[in-house]
Design a protein that fits this description.
heterodimer; A: alpha+beta; Glutamine Phosphoribosylpyrophosphate, subunit 1, domain 1; 6-stranded antiparallel beta sheet; 10 helices; 16 strands; about 25% helix; B: Alpha-Beta Plaits; TIM Barrel; 2 domains; 21 strands
């Protein structure tokens, strides 16, 4: 089972603190890998402008790095900062890691005339083009994200050891949100793309548990023909794509996510103030119903964080913390390790109807129940 | 040697050993009560006087050497019209177990003589192929083990209802909802549906029993079962009752019963579950419905608006239509309009290589609510044997191809595909149905299985009974003769309908729970099924397991 940890704080912190939380939860995971997403970046040796897209990935050979450079140059991106990890490659299990890429680019001039949506689309297409380039060249280039203010690392090995091997313990890079997951997809063949968190257009999720409804959901998302709905090396990737679909494509509020992945039953909807709309929404999105057992932890581009459960609540997760600093983890000891000085009695474990939302101001977390009304501007 | 002429032998002369079923009669047990002869639907047995020689040793010359005993016994008739159909009603009524039909272990000669009179064999039932079908060979092999916990079929809540009706895409739904536009009607129903069997094909008692059972499932057990009428219309009292909401009204090329239906629309208390437009059926593809004159009783004649005692063969196509586009536009739209666009309307076709073309036309019509495909193993009340046994398309590949085609277009949630034809043929009704659902069907229709399970239909794929067409059903299921259908108690049929659906419901849970599914019907969950047949696996795009 995957162990998950998310910390969000108003003050940037080192991802290494989250890795220590992973260590606290070590009993429950096989420590086969690490997936890390940092949002709200701060570099000690570079002043980052948060509109600049950050490219995260791994070049597995010198040739791949050259191709990457050429591609970015050809497409009008200017390299502003190349974060050099204090990496000790000897401590990394895999032997084909040429360079961990964490680069800040300036957007092409041509993009200035584009709408926000167009720019977001182009950034996704850039990531996908680089990914495809890697896949066409024997997998020598792996690209995790290309988005402002987001950095991602995925690697095989023991999480804390990887943190040290990549020099994260030097705290040169910090963030306001850090999502960490401690396992490669050992249920299937190991593939870096199969490691959580998954990322698409600013939206990231990580999950524990097996997604038993994976194939019908994947078939439906693939059928949408949206270029970003690709991959699916892991059954959990669909959770990120569903969240993207709800928020970015349908432009529904975050609360609708829960209504789509675990809709209420007909009898419950008949009593719901928005039952009529929700029943139709459930029918229209029926192929996106998840069947668990899953806890989904996610974050959005505006640093909103969320936690939802499947309808049977077969995977645990806890949120705890204090104003300005919150932690979500699959184990309570993970929350303890991330924010020890909190009032534990205020910790919360969401149940079947809940979505826990930590808004960007981080003053308090919101427990929203599916049985509650929510704001629906479109269908009002 | 005797002359040839004195031996009664014609080309069609048969002996009991030439017939498909041989009556085994034990004279030592028979009390000559006569029940078997009275009850035999085809008069295959006769009471007859017979003479037996009683040899005796004679010592004096004025006596004859042997004497003869005359007795009454039972013999099997060998005329074509009276061949034993193997129904076993004689065995059912015999108080002494003195009589029973046994299948002829040899290839019978009857099959070469069955066309006497120039008329090919017509019958009821299903394709005569007793071997397990492909669906029976599918296994559910994605078992939740350790990586995710298997669920508890007895204690977890399950939601496995399916949707009947056109579902618009989420984007379109939100657009229409915002603009206050029409949203197509959708019914939430149990995925196992009682397939279309007409009022006419079925006896009034059978029909009543089914409806009672369906109403109980819905109103007491909360299992939203629906049943389809078939072509013959619907009894007028049902049309004006609150039970109409459990009924899918079928319109077929004969339009039988639709005068009554249209006239009843202003008095309807609720809308029907859906309207099924029958373009074809699996048992007799490319053929219209057939109600033979034996069954056109007074009530049936009244309901269908025809004279009594005439054959009612429906045309093979709807006469007003010459193309699929026209059909989709005219019929579906017209039927939708009749209920003010509140009732789903979908076509039923026989399984065919062209099913995908039909489907793709439906995808482009905003009023089409689904597609029902009826495969080669479907049953019927009356059809030519050659149609039933040799024509049609197996359902599994038809459904799978159509589903994958919808997936490629991202439309698999918009047009539900329903599958029929041999579901539960060997008794594995839930396994067959769930296999089709995981191949991509949104639900399944079953007709013959319901007759067998709910009313004790005697028919089998060894051509047992199968006389539904001539209205002599020994169980009273498919007869319009009150003497026969009074054998069937509607209350008992209703009880068996309820038993059947309760059992299916439990079995669905027992299939879904180990797969880790409980929140929605696993439509298209093809990763959960496998088959020990490499070519079938490749064709269906599922796992080959051995």
């Amino acid at each position: 089972m995957c162990r998950l940890a998310l910390k969000t704080a108003s003050e940037p912190f080192s991802p290494y603190t989250v890795l220590t939380a992973m260590e606290a939860m070590q009993e429950g995971y096989d420590g086969s890998g690490l997936g890390l997403l940092l949002r709200g970046l701060q570099f000690t040796d570079y002043t980052y402008k948060s509109a600049d897209p950050v490219l995260s990935g791994i070049a597995h050979s010198e040739g791949a790095l050259h191709r990457l450079n050429d591609f970015m140059q050809d497409h009008g991106f200017a390299l502003k900062h190349d974060h050099e990890f204090d990496a000790d490659l000897s401590k990394i299990e895999a032997k084909d890691r040429y360079k961990y890429v964490l680069r800040v680019y300036r957007k092409p001039v041509a993009w200035e005339a584009m709408s926000v949506e167009q720019v977001e689309y182009e950034m996704m297409m850039t990531r996908l083009a680089l990914r495809r380039d890697g896949e066409e060249n024997g997998g020598d280039l792996t690209v995790f994200s290309f988005w402002p203010d987001v950095a991602m690392i995925k690697e095989v090995g023991w999480p804390l050891g990887l943190g040290q091997a990549l020099g994260l313990d030097t705290h040169r890079i910090k963030s306001r949100v850090c999502m960490a997951q401690g396992r490669q997809n050992t249920n299937w063949g190991i593939n870096l793309y199969a490691c959580h968190p998954f990322f698409i257009q600013g939206i990231a999720t990580m999950t524990n548990g097996e997604n038993t409804a994976f194939i019908p959901i994947k078939d439906w998302l693939t059928g949408k023909g949206y270029p970003g709905y690709v991959g699916y090396q892991s059954d959990s990737e669909v959770f990120a794509h569903i969240l993207h679909y709800v928020v970015k494509q349908l432009k529904l509020p975050l609360e609708a996510y829960k209504h789509i992945i675990t809709p209420l039953k007909t009898a419950e909807l008949l009593k719901h103030p928005q039952g009529d709309f929700l029943r139709g929404l459930r029918d229209a999105c029926r192929r996106l119903i998840i069947d668990g057992p899953n806890a989904v932890i996610g974050s959005l581009a505006d640093e909103t964080c969320l936690l939802v459960m499947d309808a049977k609540k077969m995977r645990p997760a806890t949120i705890g913390g204090k104003p300005g600093e919150w932690a979500i983890a699959s184990e309570m000891c993970g929350v303890d390790a991330m924010i020890p000085d909190r009032d534990q009695s205020l910790d919360f474990q969401p149940m079947r109807p809940h979505t826990v939302i930590v808004p960007p101001d981080r003053q308090e977390f919101k427990i929203w129940s599916q049985f509650d009304q929510f704001h629906l501007p479109q269908a009002a | 040697m005797v002359s040839i002429r004195s031996i009664p032998s014609t080309p069609s002369s048969l002996t009991p050993g030439d017939l498909p079923w041989i009556i085994e009669h034990r004279e030592d047990r028979c009390t000559l009560c006569g029940r078997c002869t009275a009850v035999c639907p085809v008069y295959a047995i006769k009471l007859t006087y017979m003479r037996q020689r009683m040899p005796r040793l004679v010592l004096t010359s004025n006596e004859r050497g042997s004497s003869f005993r005359t007795f009454v016994g039972i013999r099997q008739k060998t005329e074509i019209a009276n061949k034993c159909i193997g129904c076993g009603t004689c065995a059912m009524v015999c108080p002494n177990s003195a009589i029973k039909p046994v299948p002829n272990p040899m290839a019978d000669r009857f099959r070469f003589q069955s066309t006497v009179g120039g008329e090919p064999v017509k019958r009821g039932g299903r394709r005569n192929d007793p071997a397990p079908g492909l669906l029976d060979k599918i296994i559910f092999n994605r078992i939740s083990m350790l990586t995710d916990p298997a669920l508890d079929a007895g204690r977890h809540e399950f939601d496995f209802n399916t949707l009947l009706g056109r579902v618009v895409s989420p984007e379109e739904y939100i657009r229409r909802k915002t603009a206050g536009e029409w949203i197509p009607p959708v019914r939430e129903i149990f995925p196992f549906i009682i397939g279309s069997m007409s009022f006419g094909a079925l006896s009034p008692n059978m029909w009543l029993g089914l409806l009672q059972g369906v109403a109980y499932c819905n109103e007491v057990l909360g299992i939203p079962v629906v049943m389809a009428t078939g072509e013959g219309g619907c009894p007028p009292w049902v049309l004006r009752s609150p039970f109409l909401k459990y009924i899918i009204l079928q319109i077929a090329s004969g339009y039988f019963g639709w005068d009554e239906i249209i006239r009843a629309i202003p008095d309807m208390q609720c809308d029907p579950a859906a309207i099924e437009i029958k373009y074809g059926q699996g048992a007799k593809p490319g053929d219209g419905g057939l109600l033979m004159w034996f069954k056109v009783s007074k009530i049936i004649a009244r309901l269908r608006g025809v004279p009594e005692g005439v054959d009612l063969p429906s045309p093979p196509v709807h006469q007003t239509l010459y193309s699929i586009e026209e059909s989709v536009m005219k019929m579906i739209q017209t039927m939708s309009m009749a209920w003010n666009f509140r009732v789903p309307v979908y076509p039923k076709i026989s399984g065919s290589n062209s099913a995908k073309s039909v489907l793709n036309n439906l995808v482009r019509n905003p009023y089409a609510s689904g597609l029902l495909i009826d495969g080669i193993d479907g049953g019927t009340g009356a059809a030519y044997n050659v149609s039933m046994d040799h024509m049609g398309h197996p359902i599994a590949t038809n459904v799978r191809d159509c589903y994958l085609d919808l997936c490629a277009q991202g439309k698999q949630n918009e047009i539900p595909i329903f599958a029929a034809g041999g579901v539960g043929k060997t008794g594995n009704v839930t396994q067959n149905g769930m296999s089709l659902i995981m191949l991509g069907a949104s639900g399944v229709h079953m007709g013959k299985y319901i007759m067998q399970a709910a009313a004790g239909c005697l028919g089998s794929e060894q051509n047992r009974c199968n006389v539904c067409n001539v209205g002599i059903c020994p169980k009273g299921i498919t007869s319009q003769n009150p003497k026969l259908y009074r054998r069937l108690d509607p209350d008992q049929v209703a009880q068996r309908v309820v038993d059947t659906f309760m059992a299916i419901r439990t079995e669905i849970k027992k299939i879904m729970a180990p797969l880790g599914r409980s929140q929605s019907l696993p439509i298209g969950m093809s990763d959960a099924i496998g088959i020990a047949d490499e070519s079938a696996a490749e064709r269906l795009k599922i796992k080959y397991v051995c």
